[in-house]
Amino acid sequence: MKKLILTLLLGGFIMTRLSAKTAFVYFSATGTTERMAKNAAEAMGADILEIQPVHKYTDADLDWHNKKSLTTIECNDPKSRPAIANKIDISGYDTVVVCYPIWWSYAPKIIYTFVESQNWNGKNMITLCTSGGSGLGHSGSDLAKFAKGADFKGGKDFTRGSGADVKKYIEGLLR
């Protein structure tokens, strides 16, 4: 009888893991984060969803040397929440991997717009970033504060690394 119960429990756990749905939700202004997110989603057999800004960022908007560029202004305003052009629904997913570039040591403010607009109750949240040098920093744990109800599993900089590397990392977090 004990073997039967153990077998049923183990089988249920395996089936739950197999049926768990994962989505990679990404924002990318230059294509770097998009490549990382798509490679990782493909390696995991997960869905991929893009956060599309109402205002497409131009090279001038992304000029971090210019204190008057749009991204510099957004990053310096804690209340900034750029609008998203498309609707993203994470209700059918158990795990949501939020992918973004690092701007001035933080996630872009449009990521906060996305995170705050979702119902995170009962969902795992993982953050992945791409960065020119500053790394993930506290961006993942900072975003998790705005993802009310999420179980924040962790985050990592995957500027370099394959989809298989991301898969291994995420599977380790979800054990």
Which SSEs are present, and which pair or pack?
Layout: H1 2-19, E1 22-26, H2 32-44, E2 47-50, H3 70-75, E3 95-101, H4 109-116, E4 124-130, H5 139-146, E5 151-157, H6 163-173
Helix pairs in contact: 2-6
Brief sketch in words of this structure:
The protein is an alpha/beta fold and 175 residues long. It is 37% helix and 17% strand.
Would you give an account of this structure?
- This protein is an alpha/beta fold and 175 residues long.
- Helices cover 37% and strands 17% of the residues.
- It contains six helices and five strands.
- It has helices at 2-19, 32-44, 70-75, 109-116, 139-146, 163-173, and strands at 22-26, 47-50, 95-101, 124-130, 151-157.
- The chain has a five-stranded parallel beta sheet, sandwiched between helices.
- It is globular.
- Mean pLDDT is 90; it is low at 4-18.
Q: From N to C, what is the helix and strand string?
A: HEHEHEHEHEH
**Largest beta sheet: strand ordering:** 2-1-3-4-5
Q: What is the residue-mean pLDDT, rounded to a whole number?
A: 90
Give the number of DSSP strands: 5
Strand content: 15-25%
* Main sheet attributes: strand count, strand direction, barrel closure: 5 strands, parallel
Overall form: globular
Jot down its keywords.
6 helices; single chain; 175 residues
